[in-house]
C-alpha cells in the first residue's frame, strides 16, 4: 500500500539528510554513514568561523549517541576548522523525532537536532569525518549568520544598554540626519549622522564652545589657551581620530616614555650629519663652517649608580620546576603525582629498555643514576635506586569506587608540579599487561587538562590513548558521559607485554582561538613499529582555563609507566 503523505522525518531517514547531496557520507575509515541516525538538524553560527559546516564525528553505542559539528573556510578544510557545537544523549532518554538543543562551544552558535530510528534501534556506528567533502551539512539545515556591526547603544560609563528597534529624537542644538556616506572606500546608504547645529539667531552662545568638553575650548575654532595644540606636522593633518602616524626610516630607535606619554627618538647621527652646513662665513676668520675642523662634543657623564648594600634577601634560590624534567620512579617515589579519588597506583620491578632517554639533558631529574643529581635539582634519594615503574595492578579491571562519580572505571594519577599544560610536551614509556580478572581491558594513555565545568559540574578532559582492544591510537575527549574520539588511527601488531612510547604536546593555535594537540606512538620493544602521529584542534572556549592537571590514565586496565618526562614545546 503506497504512502501518500510521508512524514518529514520518515523521508529524511530514507536519504542522506541533513548531509548535502555533494557530501560522500563516508568516514575516514571508508564506512558509509547510515541515513537513519539523524532525522533533522538546524544550526546557525557567526560567519567569522567559516562558511562550511560539516559533521566531524559521530558515535552510536549501546548507551549513548553523540555527534560533533565543525565549520571551515574551505571544502577541503585545508586552513583548519573550528568545533562549534555538539550533542550527547543517553539512549535511556532518547526518543525518535524529539528535538534536542545542541551544546554550543562558541559564542553566537545555536540549534537543535532530532534523531531517527537508527540512533535507538540501529547497530553501533563510529565515524570520523575530516572535511566538508565527507560530511557537509546542507544549506537548508546549516546557515552562517552575519554579526550586526552595532549590537547595542548606551551612554558612556552607563551599564544600561538599548537593543532591538530604537527611535532617535534630536533636541537642539543636536541634529540627526540620514545620509549616504563613503566609509573606508565603501559607499553606504542610510547612515545616521549626528552633528551640532549653530542657531543663526542665537549669537550669544557658541554651541561648539559649549560642548567642547571640560577645557571649554575647541581646536577648530582656534580658541584654545596656551600652549596651543599641534594641528599639523610639516603640513600633515591628523585623521578623524586625531592621530598622526610618524614613519621613522633608517637606523633610528624609537621608544615611549611611560611617565609623560612622550616619544624618545635615538639616532646615531648628530645634527652636523643631518643638517646641511650653513653658507654664512665666520665674522672673525671669514671661513665657512664646513672649512673648520670638526668639534667633538663629548656626551654627558652619567651619574654614579646608587649604592646597594651587599645583603642577600634569600640565602638560597629554589627553582620550582626546571625543564626538561624527568622522574624515573626508580627510587620508589612518584614525585608530584596524586591519585584521583580511590585510584590505586603501585610500583613494579620492571623498566623500559629506553628509560635512559628520560634523563637526557634533564637538569631537573629525579631518579637519574648520575652523580650530579643532588647538586642540579636538590633531589636526595628516598630509598635505594631499583629499576621500577609506576602504575596500576591487576585489580584495576574492577573499576574505581569513590564519592566523585560513584563508579568511575578509569584509574588516574595527576602530576601537579607545574602551573600550566600549554606549551608542554609529555613523554612516557608504557607496558600494558593482559587482564587476569573478568572485565579487564587493555589500554593506557596520558591525560591532560582534567577539570570540572563550574556551571554544570560536568567532568571533562582529553587523553592520548592507546587501546589494544581495537588496535587504535588517538586523541579522545571525555564529555561527562564517555570518551569521544576526536582523531584516531589503526595501529597493527600492538600487543600486551611490550613497551611503547607515548608523547602528547599542547600548543595554542596561531590565532589564539583554539588548542592544538599532537600525540605520537612509537614501539620500544619492537622498534620496527613505525611512529604513528595524530593531531587535532579544539576551541579555546572548550578548553576553558589551563588547569595544569596532567598525568597517567587507563580504563579498567593493568598498565604501568617506566618514567615521566616534561619538555617545553615551542612548535
The multimeric state of the shown protein is: single chain
Helix content: under 10%
Biggest sheet details: 10 strands, mixed
Rg (CA only): 34 Å
- Ends apart, CA distance between termini: 64 Å
Low-confidence stretches: 309-319, 369-382, 401-408
CATH architecture label name of the domain at 325-568? Sandwich
Q: Tell me the structural class.
A: mainly beta
Morphology:
flat
Look at the structure and give the CATH class of the domain at 325-568: Mainly Beta
> Taking all residues together, what is the mean pLDDT?
81
Number of helices: 7
The number of distinct β-strands equals: 34
Describe the structure.
This protein has 571 residues and is mainly beta. Among the domains are: 8-145, no CATH class; 325-568, Exo-inulinase, domain 1 (Jelly Rolls). Helix content is 5%, strand content 36%. The chain is flat, with a radius of gyration of 34 Å. The two termini are 64 Å apart.
Offer a few descriptive terms:
about 575 residues, ten-stranded mixed beta sheet, 34 strands, flat, single chain, Jelly Rolls, mainly beta
Question: What's the short version?
Answer:
The chain is 5% helix and 36% strand. With 571 residues, the chain is mainly beta.
Compile the SSE list and pairings.
Elements: H1 8-13, E1 38-46, E2 52-60, E3 64-72, E4 81-90, E5 99-101, E6 103-104, E7 110-115, H2 117-120, E8 125-128, H3 132-135, E9 142-145, E10 174-183, E11 186-196, H4 207-210, E12 232-233, E13 236-237, E14 252-257, E15 262-267, H5 271-274, E16 325-327, E17 337-339, E18 346-348, E19 364-366, H6 373-377, E20 389-391, E21 400-402, E22 406-408, E23 410-415, E24 424-432, E25 443-452, E26 459-467, E27 472-478, E28 483-490, E29 499-508, E30 514-523, E31 532-539, H7 540-543, E32 550-555, E33 559-561, E34 564-568
Parallel strand pairs: 1-9, 16-19
Antiparallel strand pairs: 1-7, 2-3, 2-8, 3-4, 4-6, 5-7, 10-11, 12-13, 14-15, 16-34, 17-23, 18-20, 20-33, 21-22, 23-32, 24-29, 24-33, 24-34, 25-26, 25-32, 26-27, 27-28, 29-30, 30-31
Amino acid at each position: 500500500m503506497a504512502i501518500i503523505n510521508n512524514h518529514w522525518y520518515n523521508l529524511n531517514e530514507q536519504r542522506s539528510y541533513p548531509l548535502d547531496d555533494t557530501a560522500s557520507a563516508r568516514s575516514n575509515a571508508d564506512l558509509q554513514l547510515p541515513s537513519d541516525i539523524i532525522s533533522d538538524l538546524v544550526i546557525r553560527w557567526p560567519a567569522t568561523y567559516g562558511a562550511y559546516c560539516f559533521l566531524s564525528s559521530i558515535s552510536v553505542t549501546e548507551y549513548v549517541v553523540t555527534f560533533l559539528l565543525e565549520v571551515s573556510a574551505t571544502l577541503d578544510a585545508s586552513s583548519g576548522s573550528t568545533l562549534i557545537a555538539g550533542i550527547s544523549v543517553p539512549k535511556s532518554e532518547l526518543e525518535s523525532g524529539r528535538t534536542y538543543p545542541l551544546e554550543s562551544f562558541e559564542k553566537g552558535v545555536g540549534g537543535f537536532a532530532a534523531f531517527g530510528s537508527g540512533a535507538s534501534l540501529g547497530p553501533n556506528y563510529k565515524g570520523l569525518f575530516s572535511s566538508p567533502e565527507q560530511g557537509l551539512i546542507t544549506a537548508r539545515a546549516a546557515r552562517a549568520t552575519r554579526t550586526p556591526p552595532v549590537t547595542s547603544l548606551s551612554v558612556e560609563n552607563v551599564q544600561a544598554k538599548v537593543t532591538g528597534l530604537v527611535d532617535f529624537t534630536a533636541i537642539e542644538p543636536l541634529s540627526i540626519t540620514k545620509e549616504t556616506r563613503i566609509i573606508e572606500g565603501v559607499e553606504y546608504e542610510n547612515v545616521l549622522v549626528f552633528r551640532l547645529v549653530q542657531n543663526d539667531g542665537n549669537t550669544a552662545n557658541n554651541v561648539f564652545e559649549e560642548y567642547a568638553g571640560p577645557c571649554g575650548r575647541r581646536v577648530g575654532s582656534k580658541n584654545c589657551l596656551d600652549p596651543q595644540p599641534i594641528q599639523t606636522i610639516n603640513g600633515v593633518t591628523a585623521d578623524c581620530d586625531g592621530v598622526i602616524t610618524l614613519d621613522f626610516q633608517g637606523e633610528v630607535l624609537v621608544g615611549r616614555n611611560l611617565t609623560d606619554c612622550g616619544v624618545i627618538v635615538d639616532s646615531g647621527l648628530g645634527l652636523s650629519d643631518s643638517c646641511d652646513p650653513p653658507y654664512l662665513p665666520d665674522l672673525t676668520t671669514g671661513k665657512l663652517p664646513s672649512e673648520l675642523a670638526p668639534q667633538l662634543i663629548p656626551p654627558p657623564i652619567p651619574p654614579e649608580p646608587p649604592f646597594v648594600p651587599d645583603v642577600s634577601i634569600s640565602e638560597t634560590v629554589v627553582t620550582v620546576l626546571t625543564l626538561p624534567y624527568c622522574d624515573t620512579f626508580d627510587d620508589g617515589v612518584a614525585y608530584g603525582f596524586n591519585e584521583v579519588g580511590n585510584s590505586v597506583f603501585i610500583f613494579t620491578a620492571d623498566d623500559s629498555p629506553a628509560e635512559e632517554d628520560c634523563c637526557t639533558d634533564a637538569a631537573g631529574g629525579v631518579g637519574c643514576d648520575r652523580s650530579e643529581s643532588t647538586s642540579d635539582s636538590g633531589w636526595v634519594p628516598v630509598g635505594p635506586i631499583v629499576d621500577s615503574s609506576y602504575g596500576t595492578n591487576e585489580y584495576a579491571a574492577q573499576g574505581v569506587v569513590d564519592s566523585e562519580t560513584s563508579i568511575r572505571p578509569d584509574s588516574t594519577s595527576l602530576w601537579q608540579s607545574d602551573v600550566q599544560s600549554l606549551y608542554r610536551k609529555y613523554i612516557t614509556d608504557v607496558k600494558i599487561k593482559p587482564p587476569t580478572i573478568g572485565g579487564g581491558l587493555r589500554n593506557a594513555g596520558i591525560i591532560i587538562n582534567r577539570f570540572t565545568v563550574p556551571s554544570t559540574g560536568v567532568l571533562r578532559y582529553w587523553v592520548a590513548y592507546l587501546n589494544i582492544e581495537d588496535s587504535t591510537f588517538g586523541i579522545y575527549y571525555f564529555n561527562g558521559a564517555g570518551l569521544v574520539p576526536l582523531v584516531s588511527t589503526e595501529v597493527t601488531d600492538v600487543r600486551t607485554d611490550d613497551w611503547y612510547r607515548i608523547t602528547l604536546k599542547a600548543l595554542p593555535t596561531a590565532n589564539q582561538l583554539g588548542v592544538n594537540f599532537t600525540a605520537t606512538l612509537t614501539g620500544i620493544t619492537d622498534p620496527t613499529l613505525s611512529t604513528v602521529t595524530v593531531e587535532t584542534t579544539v576551541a579555546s572556549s572548550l578548553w576553558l582555563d589551563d588547569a595544569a592537571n596532567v598525568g597517567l590514565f587507563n580504563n579498567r586496565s593493568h598498565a604501568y609507566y617506566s618514567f615521566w618526562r616534561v619538555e617545553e614545546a615551542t612548535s
